[in-house]
Amino acid sequence: MEPIEIYTSKRKSVLILLLSVALVVASIWVLTSGEFDYEDTTLVKVASVAGILLFGLGIIVSIKRLVKSELALIIAPEGLNINPKKSLDEFIPWDEILGFDEVSIKGTKIVIIVVKNPSHWIDKETSALKRKMMLFNVKNYQSPFNITANVLDRNHEELMAELSLAHDKYA
Q: Distance between CA atoms of 125 and 147, rounded to whole angstroms?
């Protein structure tokens, strides 16, 4: 089997772009309208600026993904690379993967990659923020790794099928 490269979805990036533009426009309108029913308008102004910055970042990211889809996941005979654009440290060999589980959080289905020794992966992580996120995932889902198909060029069912097939073949 050749490695399967899974990219970010251009269609989903268009949706993120449209939503981000609408929210930046709304934040600018709130900031410039000056018609606040609150005595202290500082909180409204801070929230508006935060909205402009946050959703402005969403515009930049979605345009970048529209111009060139980003590689998001590689399913290879050796294992999974769950963040190939950033680092090879997030390569998980098949012999470390026990299987896959799924959870649904407010309608969003998330694939949990169940690994043999979660603490090994947490200890290996150099970023304090990522380590905290991994600890949260282990506490709540018994694994430091998860994948959502929301931004991928495949839906959840296709992703689960490909992962399960590869696991059955190589693990």
A: 17
pLDDT digits (tens, 9 = 90+) for 53-97: 999 999 998 898 888 878 889 999 999 998 777 655 578 999 999
Residue 111 has pLDDT above 90, yes or no: yes
Model pLDDT, residue 138: 94
Tokens of 8: 């970010």
In a domain, 127, yes or no: yes
Q: Which pLDDT value is given to residue 82?
A: 86
> At 6, which helix (H) or strand (E)?
strand 4-7
Predicted local distance difference test score (pLDDT) of residue 86: 64
Q: What average pLDDT does this structure show over 96-119?
A: 92
Token pair in block for residue 4: 């399967």
Does a structural domain hold residue 1?
A: no
Closest residue by Cα to residue 157 from 98, 109, 115, 103: 109
102 with 127, same domain: the answer is yes
Pairing mode of beta strands 108-115, 97-105:
antiparallel
Number of domains in the chain: 2
Query: Of 67, 87, 113, which closes a domain?
Result: 67
Closest by Cα among 12, 14, 10, 6 to 71: 6
Backbone conformation region of residue 142, classed left if phi is above 0, alpha if psi is from -120 to 50, else beta? left
Retrieve residue 116's tokens.
């043999």
